Amino acid sequence: MVQIRKRKNEEFIERKRQKLTGDDGRNDALDPIFQQDNFQIVEYFNTLAASFCEYLKASDFDNLAQVAEKIRRAVSRDEKPPLQQLINTGIVSHIIQLLDYDYFQYDVLMNECAWIMANIASGPEHHVKFLIDNQIIFYSLNMLDHPNENVKDNAVWILSNVAGDSLEGRKSLLDKEIVARIEKLLDGHSYQTNFIAHVSWLISNLTRGKPYPEYHEVEPFVPIIQFFVQNVQNDEVLNNCMWALSYLSDGTDEQIKAVLEMGITKKIVEMLAHEEPHMVAPALRVVGNLVTGGDSFTDQLIENQVIPPLAMLLSSPKKIFRKEACWSLSNIMAGPSYQIEEVFNYNNREILRKLFQMAATDDLEIRRECVFCITNACNDATLQQIQVLVEFEIIQLIVETLQNNNDTIVTKGCLEALEIILNFGKDMAHASQLGKNPFVIKLAQAQGLQVVESLQSHPENEIYEIVSRIIDDHLDFE
Q1: DSSP conformation class of 65
Q2: In 3D, which of 239, 256, 245 has the Cα closest to residue 198?
Q3: What are the helix (H) ranges across 107-192?
Q4: How many helices (H) and strands (E) does the chain have?
Q5: Which residues neighbour 297 within 8 Å (Cβ) at sequence distance 6 or greater?
Q6: Cβ contacts of residue 421 below 8 Å, gap of 6+?
Q7: CB 75 within 8 A of CB 23
Q8: 3-state secondary structure of 247
Q9: Residue range 28-48, pLDDT digits in tens
Q10: CB-based contact 245:288 (threshold 8 Å)
Q11: Tell me: the pLDDT tens digits for 58-110?
């Protein structure tokens, strides 16, 4: 039988991000440090490291902050930030220790030090491991209690980069009960939109990555995401939340139900028609996950008008969007006949016409998805729906696909659909007492009899059995 399919994820969201020096409002294009070669940078850092140690020993926190600013500006440049050169000076562990509660009163110093750590955490995995080994998670979680929002923001940035670095980084954070810390951070507080955007990015990184975290570990994020989507009018926040939902909904019916019960289904569907592709991508992924659940879940999506934007996305210039739209529609058409009818009836058969056109002319990968979509509709179709498909030349499509494809899954799906069609034709022949199965005649006209017969030698036993049934039940008398 045709099955609901789940698919491998393709990522669109950045796992890690660098925090550029320009974010502080200064133009560093002419700063000498941005023009130096590696040797000069090493010398520059060695000089700063010596000053840093001197001021730290003397507890001269004002001058420490000035040195930290110069270090931060150096490691925040856009291209090839000299992170390893800084680590080689040996002062990074001292910078991390300045993030402790004991130094909370020195806002400027703490903010500069945290910014430096955020950018080191944006580097390669061995840099992140170095930070974790030096207790960056402990200090960053503590900084979430700092009264200064900029310091908190840098802490969130660090944690986001650690979570996005690897499954090990994500696990380390979840083991430190970061979910509860985020709940505490947000409870009863009001923040700037940029800060909320960074928190939503942290949440998306904590929910991503296969194998996914245990659902019970990240389930408390559901009401936070719900609140953000319903109350924060910002595309970055919305985008991050949708990516988080795409990970949270990629699982059991319980997880899908939790997303649908958030009351934001209409918003998810609306995002499918967003003018910015990066906003469409996660919403399309969420929809693709939701339609893998039970029929009642798909009903909710249909009620929220999911079919029109999916129809529009079939014409997208982006291949991945056409593929994902086909994916979602194929799972809808694998449902009961009334859901199939919703797709068939949309705009005077527009989706069917488009799917058959794409199955003939689009990229090979998309053609495969279109064939799945069309043949899935046979699974629970009524006679009238089968007749519509036959009018659209589904038998010809099946024959051509069987001739030109080596994919066992596609072959099996096509043969199952063909068997269903021929069974309907047999019933029609008996009911009309004509004795001729009209769909066998169509199969013969499409040069399909020989194609089916040739598949008796297929190495897969399942395919051999379907072919044998088709021949025994429908083709012996032809």
Answers
A1: H
A2: 239
A3: 107-120, 125-133, 136-143, 149-165, 167-175, 178-186
A4: 29, 0
A5: 253, 256, 257, 260, 290, 291
A6: 378, 386, 389, 390, 394, 395, 439
A7: no
A8: helix
A9: 443 555 555 667 888 999 999
A10: no
A11: 999 999 999 999 999 999 877 788 999 999 999 999 999 999 999 999 999 99
Selected from 3.40.50.10900, 3.20.20.220, 1.25.10.10, 3.40.50.150, the CATH number assigned to the domain covering 393-478 reads 1.25.10.10
Res 26 pLDDT > 60: no
CA distances to 15, 69, 80, 405, 474 from 114, rounded to whole Å, are 19, 11, 20, 56, 74
Q: What digits encode the pLDDT tens for the residues 389-432?
A: 999 999 999 999 999 888 999 999 999 999 999 999 999 998 88
Q: Rounded CA gap, 443 and 396, in Å?
A: 7
Backbone angles phi, psi at 27, to 5 degrees: -95, 115
Q: How far is Cα 282 from Cα 238, in angstroms, rounded to an integer?
A: 10
Percentage, residues of the chain above pLDDT 90: 80
Mean pLDDT across the chain, nearest whole number? Answer: 90
Instruction: Say which CATH topology domain 266-376 has.
Output: Leucine-rich Repeat Variant (1.25.10)
**pLDDT (0 to 100) of residue 21:** 54
What residue ranges of the chain are covered by domains with CATH 1.25.10.10? 266-376, 393-478
Task: List the one residue out of 334, 337, 262, 276 whose CA is nearest residue 304.
Answer: 262
- Side-chain-side CA neighbours of 380 within 13 Å: the count stands at 16
Instruction: Give the Cα-Cα-Cα angle 247, 252, 255 (nearest 5 degrees).
Output: 60
